[in-house]
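dumping the sequnces here before i forget
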Amino acid sequence: MYSQALNSKEAATDSSPEADRFQARIDAEERIEPNDWMPDAYRRTLIRQISQHAHSEVVGMLPEGNWITRAPSLRRKAALLAKVQDEGGHGLYLYSAAETLGVAREDLEDQLLSGRAKYSSIFNYPTLSWADIGTIGWLVDGAAIMNQIPLCRCSFGPYARAMIRVCREESFHQRQGYEIVLTLCGGTPEQKAMAQDALNRWWWPCLMMFGPPDTDSRHSDASMRWKIKRFSNDGLRQKFVDATVPQGHFLGLTFPDPDLRYDEATGHWQFGAIDWDEFRRVLAGDGPCNRERLEARRKAHDDGAWVREAALAHAAKRRMAA
Ligand code: FAQ
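..and the predicted 3d for all of it:
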């Protein structure tokens, strides 16, 4: 259903009285709730974005889950376990928010497992060392927060409310990741080199998390008009770079971008060209780990079949007893 592309032109052509009243509510910063009237295009765009977001959280458990058995201490292992569990919880709130729009969770799962649904490009990259775990917290959660804080003011109530708790947890993850990288940077030369190598590999994919440049973003116009998105992809990407570069310099690390420089006139960090061909390849299913990630999700789904069957049998038994 949500694979049908929606663009701003389609949204702009709906000029019915209901659509005008709906837009007036949005403009007045009123929250839209599931039983309220909403244009089909608004509903479809939310189902698309919220379900992609939910899939990202759930697939996002895999790269870090890979290091749970190899964490360097019991304390690090406990914190990583809790973080990965938090990401699974975020997926559950988000699937629930999508369900309020009239879509079945089974259909969303089927779209992910069949390879038809998108999830964030970032989770198709491998975690090669312990420094990657710190770097994911620092940069990936850092980018996620930059994008998600404005979503706490999204016009659709269930999504906005889910984001409040998600952002609190992501902020903690970001601090925890930064502390891992800080420890490595204050350690042996080998540990510092490991942190530098992780930054070199994760920096550009993190900038891609914010989506295509504004000129190529097909959904932004409609989503901003509906106050689903409050900032454009390029606007959030720049905010992330401005916040993160000083943090990296404090760690004594170098960003893998010879064009990175502070522009006194604008007060922003200017950065070099992003490799959008790589982004498109990853979205098309040809990133370093796309196949591995989907296989892991399919295996988890198959291995969990007995839990679903037992839960359904239990519910049926209770209905018969009632
Ligand atoms: N990866 O027209 P736009 C996390 C797609 S959560 C893959 O600009 P839009 C937590 C886009 O879907 C990370 N696909 O689209 C965590 C669209 O495809 P479609 C996820 C991407 O929706 C941390 C097409 O390109 N966060 O990290 C990407 O207006 C650590 C055209 O793009 C969210 O999902 C991408 N990077 O803006 C977990 C936040 N970028 O549907 C574990 C909510 C774009 O036409 C460990 N989502 N595409 O086939 C959003 O804010 C928006 O959906 C954007 C894209 C900004 C991602």
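Residues 1-9 have pLDDT under 50 and may be disordered.
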